[in-house]
Amino acid sequence: MADVVLEKVEKKFGEVRAVAGIDLTVQDQEFLVLVGPSGCGKTTTLRMIAGLEDITSGDIRIGGRSVVGLPPRDRDIAMVFQSYALYPHMSVYKNMSFSLRLRHMPKKEIERRVKEVAAILGLSERLNRKPRQLSGGERQRVAVGAALCRQAGVLLFDEPLSNLDAKLRVHMRTELKRLHQAVKSTMVYVTHDQVEAMTMGDRIVIMNAGSILQIATPLEAYDQPVNRFVAGFIGTPPMNFFEGTLTANGEGASVDLNGGVNLPLGRRNLQESNRPVILGIRPEHIRLSADGPGNHHKVPATIDVVEPLGRDVIVTARSAAGVFQMQTEIYSGLRPSQHVDLWFDMNRSYLFDRETEWAI
Amino acid sequence: MSPGWRRFRFDVLSYVGLGPFLAFALFPFYWMVITSLKADANLYDLRRNPFWFSNYDGRTGLPYHKDIIVPASNNEGTIRWMIKLGAHTTRSDSEEHPAPIAFIGNQDIVSPVDGILSQITVPNGAVAQPNQVIGVIRVASPTLTHYHYLRTTPFATWMKVSLITGTAVMFITLALAVPAAYGLARLRFGGNRTIGIAIFLTYLIPPTILFIPFSQFVGALKIDNTIWSLILAYPTFTVPFCTWLLMGFFRSVPREIEERALLDGATRMQLLRLVVIPVVLPGILTAAIFAFTLSFQEYVYALTFISSVLHRTLPVGITVDMVRGDVYFWGPLMASAVLGSVPVVIVYALSLDYFVSGMTTGAVK
What we know:
The structure holds two protein chains of two kinds. By secondary structure, chain A is α+β, with helices and mostly antiparallel strands. Chain A has eight helices and 20 strands. In chain A, helix 2 packs parallel to helix 4 (136-149). Chain B is an alpha+beta fold. In chain B, 57% of the residues lie in helices and 8% in strands. Chain B has helices spanning 3-37, 40-43, 107-110, 145-150, 155-186, 192-204, 207-220, 227-233, 235-252, 255-263, 268-279, 281-296, 300-305, 314-322, 330-351; strands spanning 65-69, 82-85, 88-91, 115-120, 133-139, 323-324, 327-328. In chain B, the strands form two sheets. A five-stranded antiparallel beta sheet of chain B has the order 3-2-1-5-4, with no helix packed on it. The chains are: A alpha+beta, B alpha+beta. The A-B interface holds A 50-52, 71-73, 77-79, 81-89, 98-99, 102-103, 130-134, 136, 139, 146, 150, 163 and B 254, 256-257, 259-267, 270, 274-275, 278-279, 281, 358-365.
């Protein structure tokens, strides 16, 4: 069992609170992704689990044992660094076996483990090379391999893919996910890339300004964002936001946007009137016609930019309520400056309080 | 344009561009070597091309030569001769030779001074008079005369003293500077910035100010006039310098590598021994060479602490012995300088492979 429990963990650098008392439980064998913009405290959190940063207050338990004050080597963890952190003077084999050699494991066992991991990662032919003779992708795999050889209870990843080119990154994403299914270690993965978070995590933890905003499965985070930040962070292209006023009457609630655009909210049971709100709607929930299921409402708009992606097209449009983006199946009839009626699926819309920005 | 040709053109242009720098850097060394190999007659002949050897007098056009003179103290009947070549004199060791002049041409006699017997003006069998010029020998340039001359001086002893001092200081310096630099560069403790700056400041105080108090100190320890005085004094400037130098190298080690080593289970000492020191090896070698050369060439302390001729270091020995009053014996001076630079050149050559840039390449990203 190697679960990781963080209790009211706080980290201050001088007067700056990098992590503001977070609670987090990583289940045994879970793939948990910490995601957020730079400076949100996700890497600090990871480094505190690793023991590379002291915690200011709170408690961290790994496998039920408090590790506060323990040096990194006694925590049953392995880590993959963003910069790979390979030992430049050692061959790939020595890099991968370093931790095992320090633990005086029998040579035979070391060789068996390294060869096994090298085979999984496709590094068998590279074991005698030095890091400088490897490509970026190979270095990255050596870094992962070195962590895997340990067979530690918890594997920590600090943005391991951010230095790879886009194509390799997508490939390694799949590889890492497959690896997790094979080795069954608990994995904590830090990234600023929400696509990585969505695709890889069993659960994702969205952080901002040192606090955890939401812990959820990727689909929960997508479907039920707790506030405007999460809603805008998860999903690409990002969700559209419109400032408006919530009005309720006998027949149901609706939102008044700028420019006299009024959108009924349908079935939602809301009583308040004249509440300042933000309406959020994802680009994929805006359509060119009212056909199909959903509660569609018309917004007249002018097309600004058309960006074809192949199967889909991203359209940036201007309306009286503001500029927004929509994503729809490719359709050749769209031209800039063209006036169209676009349809918002109000069943898939989100409402946030304009003051607190939390979801209503 | 093919890539091969482009590459070739780049190489050619690089060498053309670097050529002047190379010439500039090597010129003092060239001057030193060529001076040490010139015969004195050639060395002081201002009419000849100073950048190369010549065997002909710039004024007369005749070959450089030296007279073979019968010494003034020559007693009649016992015929002695000597060959004067600048500062060097070769005398006959036989006092009762029946026909001594004939022996002037003997290779065994003439060759040690590297002259070529060109002319004997006294007929065979004649009795030479005191101060009589009995012949000339040609002076060859280049010549090893000045190097042979060093054998008549304690040059080898000075060299030994300098080598022992340099090596001892080098090891003492590394033993102190490596841990100090790592601690100052990496560990967080109170006042490490202050200590770092303090170490740098000690390096700024010139030895010319320190040598008087130091000689008192050395005298009090009763180690004056021994090699120990230097082995004790030199680390006072090599340790601060090398600490400062090594701090930069330790800072260039990616922090992640050390963090990974800690996660991999290394203790601080293992981290230093297995990861950090191998990575900064070029820096440590640089520091070692600096410590060695700084103490190998040091002058002020060596001059003031050591008075006996046989305990002198190379720079002091050379300058005291080969500069007399305002007369510089340029040939032997330069010959000593060439030989004195040999150990440094060897140390550099042996460690050249480690200086190849990019030791940390591949560590991060």
